Amino acid sequence: MEENFMHINLINPVVYTCMLPLIAGILFFLIPEKLKITKGIIAVMLSGISLYFAFVLYSAASLHEQYSVLPAGITYFNVAASSLLLCNIDPLARLVSLFICFFSFLITIYYTAFTAKENSISHFYSYMLFTLGASVITVLTGNLLVFVFFWGFLGITLYKLINAHDEISSAAAKKTLILVGASDGLMILGIAILWKISGSFDFTRAGIPTTNGLSITAFFCLLVGSFTKAGAFPFHTWIPDYTESAPAPASAYLPASLDKLLGIYFLARIFNDLFEVSSWIRLVVLILGTSTIIIAVMMALVQHNYKRLLGYHAVSQVGYMVTGIALGSVLGIVGGLFHMVNHALYKSGLFLVAGSIKKASGKDNLEQLGGLSKFMPVTFICALVFALSISGIPPLNGFASKWLIYQGIIEFGTGTGIANQLWILWLALAVIGSALTLASFIKFISGIFLGRQKTSLKEIKEVNWLMWLPQIILAVACIGFGVMASNRVIPQIFTPVTGEILYSGLWNSSAISLLIIISILLGIAIYFTLTLKKFRTEDSFIGGETFRDQAGFETTEFYDTIKNSSFFSIFYKAAEKKWFDIYELSKNSVLKISHFFSAAHNGILSNLAFWVLAGLIIMFIFLLM
């Protein structure tokens, strides 16, 4: 009786969190698009209800880790129906589902104000609710078949939310769908191999050693799915194209937050539940993780389109998460998961900032902007917090999670494997990545908010309060997760997922925050003390002509010296030729093969007879084997 009572209590929060959005998404197709304000209000309420029940699920510490919503004994194709609807309510699943609902709620509020007086994405709220429900099911399911079904379904909603309206956005949507769909196909192959090896689709009962070709193949098939969803090198190239073409709320919702949560969640499952990873595979994943950090941030440095710049940073930060989880230690895994959440906070905030800038100015490129801090002060302050956070500046949350990853790398160096011996390389690349991130966000903040305002932007004003409210909430979260990292956030949110961690150095985030606040106040006092005297200022002139109003600097040229240097120019020229774009490389290879066979079939009878004969010989050889 007690067990049945627990099942009833367990089912309710799960059903309300995931099934309610799915059902509502279907019903939303029946509501005309002209009632978008009404649809937006209802969607905000529904996402708020899902957030409430996700919090109930997260807070219920007495829940069973696994249960099924169907009785035993029902089978389909020799698979128990109860196992198909098996739920895995462990701390990691609860944590990720809570943040999925949190970001869904905030971005729904933002989008409702973003499209209040203009055209919106067709059926956005339906696809948003589908994404919310499917994402929660993907996280909470304990069955790999259910997991891959809803994982693939999310590729469709990702495609629909890009709102392809011209040739460029249509190409980005097609590229996204093909890359994500291809990775889903490899995931299905990997799951089939897992079932062949273990005879089970259970998410948590495999623990397969990667010691033979079959298990290694399964591992890399699933790794491709995780990397493509999260946007890690070399399966990352859909993200900059997507973020450049898609409306900012869609980018904030998927590539910035939910896709990162889902991709890194699955990566953690691959490393900690499904496989026992060998040292050589760990080395390969660490190479890919640190390469993701450097390659993407180098590309971000030279971008002119601010949404594309943010897209490359959405890729670069994944490298830190991959590196942390690949370390395999508790310290590294906590750092990777903490950075996963932190990235979703500040990167979704940055895309909301980008949406506000686009809404207010209608501009996409940095050279078209400047001086907006005076006219959009709330957006500017939030953008500054997000930029400092992603750059790893203390005491913000980005610093806290990167610091854990750095500590995890140092601890990893005490091991004896070849990957362990290269710890100084992993650490150096991670630190250099943070420095380059700061450099590119100096360009971002300067180009948009500082400098001289363009004459075409004189009428700009702050956006609707419903648009800057989610930004403020995310900015406060970035500050809070940084200031309270060591005292509250890590011990209460992340160590229940991974276990207790031991720091190799002294660190108290609250004490550091206090010292930083004191230093800032002291700096302000010194500034005002030293500037009490009045200084005379004169306009600059050349040949007797003043030109202060025309003087300025182009932020897009900040790092042209890097791009044009003899060493890095090779890298950038290769990037321009799409040498790092697996989609373009695959497409060109397929087209070349197609052209070869097309040229061979030229309609000449003798050539056709040759190909028929060659085909018969090949078939005969296979029959004899």
Shape: globular
Structural class: mainly alpha
Uncertain runs are 1-10, 67-82
Q: How many H/I helices?
A: 24
**Mean pLDDT across residues:** 84
Please explain how this structure is put together.
Strand 7 and strand 8 (545-546) form a beta hairpin. The protein is mostly helical. It is 71% helix and 3% strand. The chain has helices at 2-28, 36-59, 81-84, 91-114, 124-140, 144-160, 167-198, 213-230, 238-245, 248-274, 279-301, 306-327, 330-361, 377-390, 397-412, 418-421, 423-449, 465-483, 485-498, 509-530, 560-564, 568-576, 582-600, 605-624, and strands at 66-68, 75-76, 79-80, 86-88, 208-209, 275-276, 541-542, 545-546. The strands form 4 sheets. Strands 1-4 form a two-stranded antiparallel ribbon. Among the domains are: 278-580, no CATH class; 587-624.
List the helices and strands and how they pair.
Blueprint: H1 2-28, H2 36-59, E1 66-68, E2 75-76, E3 79-80, H3 81-84, E4 86-88, H4 91-114, H5 124-140, H6 144-160, H7 167-198, E5 208-209, H8 213-230, H9 238-245, H10 248-274, E6 275-276, H11 279-301, H12 306-327, H13 330-361, H14 377-390, H15 397-412, H16 418-421, H17 423-449, H18 465-483, H19 485-498, H20 509-530, E7 541-542, E8 545-546, H21 560-564, H22 568-576, H23 582-600, H24 605-624
Parallel strand pairs: 5-6
Antiparallel strand pairs: 1-4, 2-3, 7-8
In short:
The chain is mainly alpha-helical and 625 residues long. It contains 24 helices and 8 strands.
